[in-house]
Amino acid sequence: MAVAALSPAKLNPGNLLKPRGERLVAALDVGTSKVAALIAIADGENPPRVIGAGVRACNGLRRGLVADMARTETAVRAAMDQAERAAGLEIESVLVNLSAGGLDSDVAPVEIDIAGHRIEDADVATLLAAGRARIEANDRLKGRTILHAEPTLYTIDGVDGVTNPRGFHANRLAVDIHVITADTPPCRNLDLAVRNAHLNVESIVAAGVASSLSILGQEERELGVAVVEIGAGVTTVAVHGGGMLLGLAAIPMGAADITADIATNFACARSAAERLKTLHGAATASPRDNHEMIEIPPLETDDSGESRRVAKAELIAVIRSRADLLFREVAQALGEMGFHGSAGRQVVLTGGGAELRGVADFAQGALARNVRLGRPRGLIGLPEAQSGAAFAALVGLIHYGATSRIDLARTPPRASSRAARGPETQPGRFARLFQQLKTQI
Ligand SMILES: Nc1ncnc2c1ncn2[C@@H]1O[C@H](COP(=O)(O)OP(=O)(O)OP(=O)(O)O)[C@@H](O)[C@H]1O
Ligand SMILES: [Mg+2]
């Protein structure tokens, strides 16, 4: 194998591993409960092949944001170290996931004059350069970090929904550019924590973008689907349709809130509550739960030192009441993003919280939509320990890095000489685009 033969010199994942055109892709998911690292080799044709993985528990984040630099840095270092040792090489730069920090998505329309000639690559480049300039000049985005700016569908002389405009004659060429932004300080802090662990951040990728790549099929993405990623501290809701991400929302509530509720309700330690949740917990109730008793370990400060027994139904009631709160917020976010009607029926749950027994059934009832569980797929050699729903974003980052894409936040197209027209990004554009896609389905 080309990589195994390399000495542990510093390697940039962007490097080509000649002669087979292989590339290293390294990913880091810095989450509220854990930091996970993955190293894979991608050749552009076959599924990426995992050569190293590492995980380390981390409590340096609050609700998806770095709150303790030293703890985060230590966990990043340990997770990547484990992955590097397994891969037998050192990584220089990584793709990193962001699931909070004021993520926002928008559509920036841009248009240029073609004067009736056949559209060529140069015209598309001019259009995209104009789009980039327009986004950079947008006052509403000032002070925010642009994570992604991906061209979506083109419009030729008012005919919209064109995937590839090259070769057509037209007077005017337009495109909607999908822009995902985040507050700048959280991005800087995440970048700093990773850099302190001696890794360069190649890109910060929004959570909804990463996870969707590992758990959704192309057809689902086309027809309309919402991904609800329940992390420990944050739940992200990402709406897809027409093959692209149409909307993104982050709810500051997650599976760690269930643990906290259990600890408070039964006066036990968080670690005991976590065990109760994963071992006996569920989001669906059955009459048997009234008769099945479970043991609650005492707090260290409890002088009696005796554990108590409660009906499993009590544990499940606590879990269900938090799940109810969470899915109310999810339903509201879906509504605000225009996820209705025939294109708004399918929901995929992922993130560690989706591993809670019965949560898909619960969500199906609470959201009145079809709900399935999404675990990451599409990589060769993904270790069992990283194949649960908690690793959807991590695996998605590898897919992200393995596929070539046009992202104006990264690849500046050639400068433009033609004047661009079109309003600045508008919040209402999303609903319109989603509506437009729905009517095409
Ligand atoms: N089998 C299970 N049953 C219930 N909850 C589970 C199970 N497995 C994992 N979880 C929960 O999933 C959460 C961790 O999920 P995940 O790893 O996706 O979060 P994270 O990425 O660290 O956090 P975030 O994305 O919010 O920053 C924990 O709260 C954990 O208790
Ligand atoms: Mg996460």
Automatic annotation (TrEMBL):
- Check the record and name the Gene3D superfamilies matching this protein: 3.30.1490.110, 3.30.420.40
List the InterPro entries hit by this protein, alphabetically. ATPase_NBD (IPR043129), Cell_div_FtsA (IPR020823), FtsA/MreB (IPR050696), SHS2_FtsA (IPR003494)
GO BP: any one term: FtsZ-dependent cytokinesis
Membrane topology according to the record: Peripheral membrane protein
GO cellular-component terms in the record? cell division site; cytoplasmic side of plasma membrane
Question: Which coarse location class describes where this protein primarily resides?
Answer: membrane
Keyword Cell cycle listed? The answer is yes
* Source species, domain of life: Bacteria
SUPFAM superfamilies cross-referenced by the UniProt entry: Actin-like ATPase domain
Q: Where would I find the SHS2 domain in this sequence?
A: 25-215
One Pfam family named in its UniProt record: FtsA
Q: Tell where it localizes.
A: Cell membrane
Q: Does the keyword Cell membrane apply?
A: yes
What keywords does the record list, in alphabetical order?
A: Cell cycle, Cell division, Cell membrane, Membrane
Please name the NCBIfam families in this protein's record: ftsA (TIGR01174)
Identify its protein family: Belongs to the FtsA/MreB family.
Note the HAMAP family from the entry. Answer: FtsA
Role, per record:
Cell division protein that is involved in the assembly of the Z ring. May serve as a membrane anchor for the Z ring.
Instruction: Report quaternary structure and partners.
Output: Self-interacts. Interacts with FtsZ.
Tell me what this protein is called. Cell division protein FtsA
- Give the source species: Sandaracinobacteroides saxicola
Gene (UniProt): ftsA
